Amino acid sequence: GEEGEEGEEGEEGEEQEGPNDSTQAFCEHEGPVYSVATHPTQPDLVASGGGDNKGFLWSLSRGERLFELSGHTDSVVFVRFSPDGHQVATAGLDGSVRVYNTADGALVHTLDGPSEGIEFMMWHPSGKAILAGGGDMLAWLWALPSESSKCFTGHSGPITCGAWTADAKQFVTGSADATIRVWGSGSTPAKVLQGGLFHRADVLCLATTAQHPAVVLSGSADKTAKISNITTGKVLQTFAQHTDVIEAVGFSPAHPYLAIGSADTRVSVCDTTTMQLRSSLQHPAGISRLLWHPTDPLLFTAALDGTARVWDARTGTCVRELRGHSETILDLALTCDGQHLVTGADDEAALVFPLAAPTPAAPTDAA
């Protein structure tokens, strides 16, 4: 710690070239920070995973490591806390998922099986299982604490994304084979979304929502986003206003909006009741990630220019720019109290941005 401080100051000095809106930085990764996650009940607890094959648990307020999550032999591309926050899972390009205790950083489960890198990973809402998919074209579901695994076969290309349905009884996976598969309890898909009006190229991102439990929103390399019914397999709506790959999609959990982020530098905000475009949010560079606020009509976006932005979805206005990264932002997470946005980027840093306006500045804002 002590002897490293001088070097850290030097590094920080270099990063200070541009404006920096962050209040804390975590700089222990020696590679891109691919994934950041925030604890479900403790706002000060953050996990991150990086290109240095490491995960870390760290303190948001201090920017200091609590525990290193070691053991992966390739990049850690996903970190996720369990629903109760007692454990944190990491997924790597080495094809393994590792589960650690949040309290002491101890490794409790090593989940093996995939023969290729993992591209998506998530906990079951019950906390009793972990789902993952990746380069071996299989979806893997591990029961916890038994570690017994189940394999779901059917995709003919890498699995790029996935989500649980609203009732958590089924899950959907998207793949480079241009399909989405809907899985229930059996190891063969309950429904395959493909061909016809469906995507013509890799499915890159998808989202489900409790507000509309029967649908999935997907984004593709074919430059379109689609809403499809997972029971019938029918495409209900195609959004074709973008001119490049769709990198991110999401439903607002509390408002009738959805968002579609594209490499064409725009995010479309659409009304889920009318399916009409509400606003097009213009960025100076392609979009890498988007995240809806859990209760407010706010959308957080990350772009290749290294800036995160906060938008009011009702008006389509950018209410805040969060600067500090020098390279592409790869992931976004919001603390459980909604007070801070955490970002991970290609510049090997994770930054913490306060979202509440500083109190002393309020009178001048009003003036």
Unreliable runs: 1-15, 360-367
Shape: globular
Measured by DSSP, the beta-strand proportion falls in over 45%
What is the CA-atom radius of gyration, in angstroms?
A: 20 Å
Q: Distance between the terminal alpha carbons, to the nearest Å?
A: 44 Å
Q: Kindly state the mean pLDDT as a whole number? A: 91
Helix amount:
under 10%
What is the makeup of the main sheet?
4 strands, antiparallel
- Spatial order of strands in the largest sheet: 1-32-31-30
Compute the number of strand runs.
32
Query: Treating each run of at least 4 consecutive H or I residues as one helix, how many helices?
Result: 2
Structural class: mainly beta
Describe this structure in words.
- This protein has helices at 4-15, 362-366, and strands at residues 24-26, 33-38, 45-50, 55-59, 64-69, 76-81, 87-92, 97-101, 107-111, 118-123, 129-134, 139-143, 149-152, 159-164, 171-175, 180-183, 191-193, 203-207, 215-220, 225-229, 235-239, 246-251, 257-262, 266-271, 277-282, 287-292, 298-303, 308-312, 317-322, 329-334, 340-345, 350-354.
- With 367 residues, it is mainly beta.
- It has 2 helices and 32 strands.
- Helices cover 5% and strands 47% of the residues.
- Strands 1-32-31-30 form a 4-stranded antiparallel β-sheet, with no helix packed on it. A 4-stranded antiparallel β-sheet has the order 2-3-4-5, with no helix packed on it.
